[in-house]
Amino acid sequence: MPGIKLTVNGKxxxxxxxxxxxxxxxxxxxxxxxxxxxxCDTSQCGxxxxxxxxxxxxSCTMLAAAAEGAEITTIEGVSSxxxxxxxxxxxxxxxxGLQCGFCTPGMVMSITDLLRVNASPSETEVREWLEGNICxxxxxxxxxxxxxxxxxxxxxxxxxxxx
Amino acid sequence: MYNFxxxxxxxxxxxxxxxxxxxxxxxxxxxxxxxxxxARLASPSVLVDLSGLAExxxxxxxxxxxxxxxxxxxxxxxxxEAVRSAIPALAALAGNIGDPAVRNRGTxxxxxxxxxxxxxxxxxxxxxxxxxxxxxxxxxxxxxxxLGMFETALEEGELVTRVDFPIPTxxxxxxxxxxxxxxxxxxxxxxxxxxxxxxxITGACEGGVSRWDAAEAALSSDFSAGxxxxxxxxxxxxxxxxxxxxxxxxxxxxxxxxxxVQACG
Lengths: 163, 265
Hints:
Oligomer: heterodimer
CATH topology of the largest domain in chain B: Uridine Diphospho-n-acetylenolpyruvylglucosamine Reductase, domain 3
Number of strands of chain A: 5
Structural class of chain B: alpha+beta
Number of helices of chain A: 5
Number of domains of chain B: 3
Mean pLDDT of chain B: 96
Structural class of chain A: alpha+beta
Largest sheet of chain A: 5 strands, mixed
CATH topology of the largest domain in chain A: Ubiquitin-like (UB roll)
Order of helices and strands of chain A: EEHEEEHHHH
Radius of gyration of chain A: 16 Å
CATH architecture of the largest domain in chain A: Roll
Largest sheet of chain B: 5 strands, antiparallel
CATH architecture of the largest domain in chain B: 2-Layer Sandwich
Strand order of the largest sheet of chain B: 4-5-10-6-7
């Protein structure tokens, strides 16, 4: 069984895993980081989305062994230690970007990655980016609004008013 | 999924050696293979991970062609300045595969080696007349590489190392997506070269990615949407399933081919 060493939310992790262990299984079952969800398990829904070396990846479709040496960030790693929400999380709260909350960790991680590669996305670009993140509650509208608001905040502009 | 051993070779030579193991299977981004393993449609004894091999990554322009390493991810092809300037249609194709997270893992080599009948990359390779280089030292023309659904000219244990794409005068890829899978229900790649035009169809054909000879002949003498108006791809060679009948796909091929020609300018 492969031994792996990686960084998860800033902490070094050393584990021995089976070849078939998925990254999401390592995170949830071995490390107890259950904020990363398994929705479809077929890389469609994006509930399992985490950052691998800063880029979004569906952790249900990556082997844990392939994360050797990688820096992983999960939803547990994005807020401050005192629980203060980060900009994207706060925008979700402000704009009611969630209802049941199941897809939200993946949404937050995905939008964080979008704002890394595109600081000023248009509404169309946000919607296209979220192609791989499925939400069955909100109809996406408030998620998109939250993403645009977070982008403005990060650019230092006035956030758009909540409706 | 069934369990397997996992190997992370440090070089292509080590990977080739590891692939000699019984039931060894190469994995790159795993965006197709991992779902396949989960469905127990494959049960390799050992997976050989190619995703860490720097020698298989990167894009370089060499004269009148673009050389792209097999382990280059879709996101890297889509974002490459060299690809965007030489073959913008190829960058656009890579940037519309799956979704952003899938594009951060999936690779060119994995796509062409798997030869899914609805994958995007095989149509670009075929229409551009690409050459597929392998670990056995072979350089295989795309026309000889794609043999049928999920079938290629690769021998047991042979790995794709690089794909060379000739740079066309103009090219365009039109994809009609199956919205759930984001694969092509029909995809048409049109490439124009000084010597003539090439047209490759994905998503639609029983035999996997295919050229449309009649459209190529028409476009080679008159490169205009009008030249292919009224032409129909033979429906008896087309896939019929819950997403579309052969006649529906035939119609899409015509529409998308005309759009691709128009977009070539």
